[in-house]
Amino acid sequence: MSLPSEVDVAIIGAGAAGLGAARALENSGLSVLVLEARDRVGGRAHTIQVAPDVTFDLGCGWLHSADKNSFVKIAEQLNFEIDKNLPPWRERAVGNAFPQAERDDFIRALAEFYDRAGTAAVEARKNDRDRAASALLEPGNRWNPMIDAISTYINGAELDTVSILDMDAYEDTNVNWRVRRGYGALISAYGARCPLALNTQVKLIDHSGARVRIETTQGSLSCGKVIVTVPTNLIADESIRFHPALPAKVDAARDLPLGLADKVVLALDEPDALPKEGNLRGATMRTAMGTYHLRPFGQPCIEGFFGGRFARELEDAGDGALAAQSIDEIAGFLGNDYRRKLRPLRESRWAHDPFARGSYSHALPGYAGMRAALASPVDGRLFFAGEATSPNFFSTAHGARDSGERAAEEVIAANTARR
Ligand SMILES: Cc1cc2nc3c(=O)[nH]c(=O)nc-3n(C[C@H](O)[C@H](O)[C@H](O)COP(=O)(O)OP(=O)(O)OC[C@H]3O[C@@H](n4cnc5c(N)ncnc54)[C@H](O)[C@@H]3O)c2cc1C
Predict the structure, then answer these.
(1) I want to staple 143 with a disulfide (CB 3.0 to 4.6 A). Which of 82, 109, 265, 363 is the partner?
(2) Apex CA 171: angle with CA 61 and CA 376, to 5°?
(3) Start-to-end CA span in the chain (Å)
């Protein structure tokens, strides 16, 4: 499509945040257009059918904090079935690689770590002295490398780069559900009626004049207000530029880098030999390890999950490295005949994705306050959303969506104030 020459509100990015903003502006009387660089909506939410009987979420898969997750109601409205079974990562150990008794001991150590983090956060708020969460690892505890591995899954980064205050601000209600047809599929259905320009990469936001001018790969348009929802790494690298420059936003984005989490899905022959919804991982004393979800939704496949520096190393090694690592690790746990039973179907490469450059944000030690700094509007015309701006549900899809709604409300309030 060709771009209109002007709109009231341009929204940059058609991920959960951008779609949340567009939906919240639906009845505002303002003309809206979502500008999206990719040829699809959803951003870091992307469901694909990798085999006739295997649906796979390359990005978000879990409705985290499901009892407070705004996508739950949306799923119900859109007739997307929600699976409320417990996630496998705690109780459903499979095989002898990490027996349940060891797993219980590890979970105890992890809970103690989080307790120390909670206490340290109270202190840090009092003294205004944030630190790296790695400071809370108990010296010599045998589970430290695995606690760090969990951080690479949750934060996309090891604890030495994660702020204690930021970690503490995240609201985890420990209720995690799933969408049977895929979280990405739900988010694209949610955005189905939003006014969109796909394949439209925004290069420059010029807010020097009376109206904001946006330069894109499909031409330029003028608008009254803009909601920017692109991932922090793209603002930090100035892959999207502002004129006049906004150094405070670039700094905030740099202090909220995207960590890395990657997924792989492997087709599984003779699936009935393994339980549905099991979890497989080793009691390794390394942080560089995968965690494996066996037969999610009963499908004939295994999903692997990697985070942090190890995920980056595997991505850098090239396409196929995540699958090769997974097959080696799984064969080590379950026996060598699994080498012939497993076949790579697809793996993500979020760090190499030009419109993401990572998976989800964490605040660097000392910079938890940057989420509010990134979220704050500029001149009543530039508004900011995206998972990184969420005060308590950052790094998640529902946090992103809610932030889009918040930015839309700010736009409406600014418009009313001007009248
Ligand atoms: C492997 C992985 C697993 C995850 N697991 C979960 C999970 O289980 N549960 C959960 O809640 N969350 C999870 N997440 C996080 C969740 O996917 C994200 O937090 C959320 O989707 C981010 O939404 P957003 O709208 O903020 O950003 P995005 O989805 O990144 O949307 C931003 C959009 O902006 C577009 N864009 C970028 N640059 C430009 C430009 N210059 N011009 C125009 N458009 C541009 C992008 O293409 C993108 O569509 C996971 C993420 C990954 C990668």
Answers:
(1) 109
(2) 95
(3) 32
